[in-house]
Hints:
The protein is of the alpha+beta class. Helix content is 27%, strand content 35%. It has helices at 6-46, 125-130, 195-216, 221-240, 245-254, 437-464; strands at 48-50, 58-59, 73-76, 89-91, 98-102, 119-123, 134-137, 139-141, 144-154, 160-164, 169-174, 182-183, 188-193, 260-264, 269-274, 281-282, 287-292, 296-304, 316-321, 327-340, 346-354, 365-373, 378-382, 387-388, 393-400, 403-414, 419-424, 431-435. A hairpin with a 5-residue loop joins strand 20 (327-340) and strand 21. It starts with 5 loop residues before the first helix and ends with a helix. Mean pLDDT is 80; it is low at 77-81, 88-96, 104-116 and 462-468.
Amino acid sequence: MKLIPKTNRSRLMLLLLIAALSILAYFTWKQVATPEANAGDEAAAQQLWTCPMHPQIIRSEPGFCPICHMELVLLRTPHEHDPETGEPVFTDGADPEMQAVDEGAGAGAPDPGTRNDRLLVRVEPSVIQRIGLTTEIVVKRTIAREIRAVAHVDFNETAQTIVNSRVSGWVEQLYVNYTGQLVTRGQPLAGIYSPELVSTQQEYLDLHRRLDEARAREASPVAIEDLEQLLAAARRRLALWQISEAQIRAIEQRGQVSRLLTLYSPYAGSVVEKHVVQGARITEGMDLFRIVDLSTVWAYAHIPEKDIPFVRQGLAVRLIATQLAGEEYSGQVSFIFPFIDSDSRDLKIRVSVPNPGFRLKPGMFATVVFRNQLPGEHLVIPSTAVIRTGTRDVTFVYLGNGAFEPREVTVGVDDGEGNFQIIEGLSEGEAVVVSGQFLLDSESRIQEAIRSLQSRGASGSAAGGHQH
């Protein structure tokens, strides 16, 4: 076997050593450089851009706002963590001291289907003072509301009557000469001459005289009974023609007929309709007068839908007549209409009001005022604590240590004093933000947009992944 010279053998060993060191250096560089490159790529992929004027616009690359065409600005930088919890945070470039913390994020977060997806907005104490964030406690108490509504006065429909004639004849006397005339109960309205009525009265007097004569001569019981039946029939005809018992007794006492049938007013009130003049010929059943009792009037008011829970039948009401130097009258809700006006979207109610002296006039405008409270106690917060977006109502709950949680709530009635009833979403004793919450709302909207974009990106990555 031929031996390799010593000089050549040394050169070969040197070459092998250089090759081994090169391979070692290559793998060492790959292990160090690759994570940095991957981290840089991941950071670039995680960068988001937003519009300063429209924070709901979130893009994964630079560009321009589709609404105002402003250039998008960098929204967040990667690898930031909350200093207290270590959770990832996303810093709004507009205010680096305000952070939105996603409680569902982080390496140790559970499966997205089971994690707590609450959004928390953390604010530095200096920022809380600078933007004027203030809170109030959610309390539980009764809710009362004073309601004022414009009303118009009208007639009491149950205190109206039509005076008509039940006989044909002529109006020989007219005691009420004009529409609107005030009358008292029992006041004469008109005197009517009716030949038929005069004839029936005469028939009644004749039968009454014959019955007296039959009893005087002790006629047979059958004859007396026949006369009594005929007299009763004549008496009924007179009653049907509006001849009162007092008038019939007066005819008996005088022994002569009354030429005119006098019509009397059944109510104290106003003659709102008059259809006859003196000397006019009238027919049976003809309407002569319409009289309205004004001792009680009705007032109709329209209540907005939001105030309907405070209205109930029998509720005491004050009616203020501004045209009468602010005179006040007491009444009550006598009827609530069973439907909402489709045009005005309000509820019509009727108030019954005593009207001494007939001072309240039908057609007059007035103001009705009443106060009522909902049964039981309810959660109440200031109305300024609620952000109404049109699709939902949101309030921010202060959790302490500068953390605020946006909470969707169900709002009930407004008490008219700057407070809302809360039906769902809050608990008694929690603190809600009542001023400065719009800045928190803007930050939470940015975080929601980020989450939505990440969700779409995660879905796309899962769909595009390769299978082994």
